[in-house]
Design a protein that fits this description.
Blueprint: H1 2-8, E1 19-22, H2 30-36, E2 42-46, H3 49-56, E3 63-66, E4 80-84, H4 93-102, E5 109-115, H5 121-133, H6 150-157, E6 162-174, H7 182-187, H8 193-196, H9 201-218, E7 227-239
Parallel strand pairs: 1-2, 1-4, 2-3, 4-5
Antiparallel strand pairs: 5-7, 6-7
Helix pairs in contact: 5-9
Length: about 240
Amino acid sequence: MRPALDLLAQVGPLPDGDVIDLCCGDGAVGPALAARWPDRRRVGLDASPAMLERADETGAYAALVEGDAALWHPEAPPALIFSNAALHWLPDHATLMPRLAGWLVPGGMLAVQMPRQFGAPSHRFLRDIAAAMFPDRFDAGPEEPPVRSAQHYWQMLAPLGQVQAWETDYVQYLGPASDSHPVRRFTESTAMRPYLECLSAAEAAAFTAAYDTALSAAYPLLADGGALFPFRRCFFTLMV
């Protein structure tokens, strides 16, 4: 939640209009949005019905909408489109971000936070090890990262309004994991999953062992078996 709250702190006074939690997931940010704008109509959008059911339990939203954020359009121009740790899953940011900004009322704001770990050892090792072990299925060659630099987004969005853009490294403590490196436990359900889905059980075991070994060099274990994991986030706000 800390990155979401840091982004929220940069949102100033808003004109009239709804507050949209784009890709709201289970509604983790909903209570913070409700506390900040208790009198606004708050709308959560997500592609997962299961996540929307959990978001509904927070009581933070006036409406919850099932839909694809890449295709979504609001019923009426909103005052704020807020997206926390979600838009990195969507392609073509050069089209997506201006499109979202175009839905806002004058004076409205687009506020976005996305993880930017493409070049970190935790993610780079996955590409390199997979390409080395299974060259017929994986390629470690040049690939455009899903999230670009804060400077890139500033330059992209500056013609549309007032932009703030920045990056922050959050040093996370990951607790001990009995059968894996703590960072692998963190990545195995997200960044690691597409690789594991392409491998047999035996291949996955060998790949995982090699990944754990590499992680131990980049993220040494602490005395208690945990590890420190720097995690970079990219932020921007655009007032139109």
